[in-house]
Design brief:
By secondary structure, this protein is an alpha+beta fold. The chain folds into two domains: 62 residues, no CATH class; 61 residues, no CATH class. 31% of the residues lie in helices and 16% in strands. The protein has a two-stranded antiparallel sheet with strand order 1-2. A two-stranded antiparallel ribbon has the order 3-4. The longest helix has 13 residues.
Amino acid sequence: MTFRTLMIAAAALAAPIAVIAPAHADGGVFVGVEGSNIAVSGYDTVSYFQGDGVPVKGSADYKVNHNGAVWYFANQANADAFKANPAAYAPKYGGHCAWAMSRGALAPGDPTLYKIVDGDLYLNFNPNVQKTWLADIDGFIAKSDPAWTKIPDGKKFGD
């Protein structure tokens, strides 16, 4: 584990958090592929809502440009579903960590640490953060929703 990763992990668990500096985000759609603008680390966001709900990696063969990011999908049908209704499939808070947003901060969301709540996809930063978030999902969402509206419009992916 690098020193930077260790510092971000420590900051994510600190309370209270003033600001978490996201590794690849400026408040907009969190992109998790180093040096690129690939949303959700290349995972197919439609796949979270299908079958057994296990997310799969998308392919550059099925990509959609949306809100300044490139979204990958596993097949053309999923890409088309996303194009028809991006808000139904894009993760809340631009893919940033749902728990960190409840603290008014941005942190990277890990696409393998997720939960669908009332038809919305939420990501978390790491397993410890997710454990905390899962203990009071409704309470954290109640804090995260208004915090997300305070991120300047030009710096976030709107729902």
